[in-house]
Amino acid sequence: MKIMRRMMVLCLALLLVVTAYIPQKASAAKKIKLNKKSVSLKVGKKVKLQVKNTKKKVKWSIKSGKKYISLTNKKKTSAVVKAKKAGTAKVQAKVGKKKLVCKIKVTKKSSGTSSQKPNTGTQDGKKPVTGTPGQNVPLPTGATVFTIGSKKLAVGMTEQDVNTVLGTLSNQEIRKGKSPQGFDTIAFNMENYQEYLLIYLQNSKVTGICGIGKTMSYGDVIAGGNGNNLSADWRIVNDYKTTSGIVAAKKKKLSFNEMAYAFFDALGDNNIYCIQVFDPTLVKDVDHDMIYMTENLSYDSVVTSSIAAETGHMLNAFRVSRSLGAYYLNSGLAKCAQNYCNTADSKKIDSRQPDPLLQAMQGQGVDPMAWGEVCYYGAADAVSFANSLIGLESFYPQLAGAEASKYSYIGVGMATNGKQSYLALDYADTIQ
Asked: Which is it for strands 421-428 and 184-190: parallel, antiparallel or unpaired?
């Protein structure tokens, strides 16, 4: 009996030893899941959703709140959600029979400008206010009033008076720069492009004003009015005709020291969106834009950076005036666009058509159409570049037409070679 018990104990011991060396069962397969179960976005922002632990193709859909969000850049296991307007929505990712849901809460944009800013080399931020903030001031005798809401400006007023009138407009970004003729510039970006003003100064006096916004007016020009209905005193500006010959701008000389331009959406509803006024006695060629230079296009880096930055901001102001969202200004894309301009400069391209530039870059093994580009030649300041692009029929669908919601990011670059100016706009639907 004792022998039997000893044998049983020995067998059990051996069994335990053997069991200890049997490979354990592989851990259970990782659970398929979304990288986010819920997310909060501000209007205009994006988030990437990713289904983890699967190689199967995911079927993406919006289960609720389609008016608040959109799905873009759908791939095998990922998709990008873009916030369109404040509200709540649900996105479903279906893998076989398994359904995964992410709750999306969209909130209104915070006031102010996007945290992504172009690498402009200019000064951004609040500017000290002098005088009594938020008060209108006496304007120069005989000057035509440029209004923005209830605020009143005019050519000939002092920089201190500009600060007094505009100083307390809330949520504004103020940026300083230089124009090609050497004028100091101050850009006032109010309520995230709801109203956008570019002020030109010489010896601390206003030599020019350019604005894009819904509450602006100047004489008989009213933002939102039909540009074709301006009086006969307003002459067609041939430089701003579209390729199909549609008029996009008119000009009028009001007095000895006032020349005005009215830009309107010729490829859209013909509504006036931009007003420019300047002192023609300070301009060498009054038949062109205020900053047009016919003798020397060799601008320094501060000027070209200012022009590139202002062009991007003015395009954003136009989009907002059309009730579209502003682009996100991206420094990486701006560098890419700048490289395109530098290539054009090195190739000495002298053409207003984009093909020579694109072909030159392709010849160097660069594919500039991978994201989407616009190239423009022969203008010399931000106002002329921006308004020329707005009237560019090949770009208008992406800017404000049928494809306007497709692209969200832009960068702008500029170069000159003494005879020709180049500006490139690099745009993309999303930045990974």
From this structure: unpaired
Helix (H, G, I), strand (E, B) or coil at 32: coil
AA identity, residue 77:
T
d(CA 223, CA 88): 34
Residue 155: Cβ-neighbour burial (10 angstroms; 0-12, 13-18, 19+): buried
Task: Name the region of 378 (left: φ>0; alpha: ψ -120 to 50; beta: rest).
Answer: left
Mapping DSSP to helix (H, G, I), strand (E, B) and coil, where does residue 105 land? strand
Digit-coded pLDDT (tens) for 252-275: 988 878 999 999 999 999 999 999
Query: CA 132, CA 312: separation in Å to the nearest integer?
Result: 32
125-139 pLDDT, tens digit each: 444 444 455 688 999
DSSP 8-state code for residue 238: G
Three-state DSSP class for residue 330: coil
- Residue 215 has a pLDDT of 94
d(CA 378, CA 391): 15
Of 99, 104, 105, residue with least CA distance to 33: 99
Instruction: Using CB atoms within 10 Å of the CB of residue 17, give its burial: 0 to 12 exposed, 13 to 18 middle, 19+ buried.
Output: exposed
Structure tokens, 154? 């005019």
Q: Which two tokens stand for residue 364?
A: 């160097």
Q: Tokens 């969200």 sit at which residue?
A: 408
Which pTM was predicted?
A: 0.66
Q: Which CATH number fits domain 33-107: 2.102.10.10, 1.20.140.10, 2.60.40.3450, 3.10.50.40?
A: 2.60.40.3450
Spans of the chain, pLDDT less than 50 = 10, 12, 14-27, 111-131, 170-171, 286-294, 352, 371, 432
CA dihedral over 181, 151, 316, 231, signed as positive or negative: negative
pLDDT at 118: 34
123-428 architecture in CATH? 3-Layer(aba) Sandwich (3.40)
Domain residue limits, the chain: 33-107, 123-428
Residue type, 199: I
Backbone φ and ψ for 361, nearest 5 degrees, come out as -70, -40
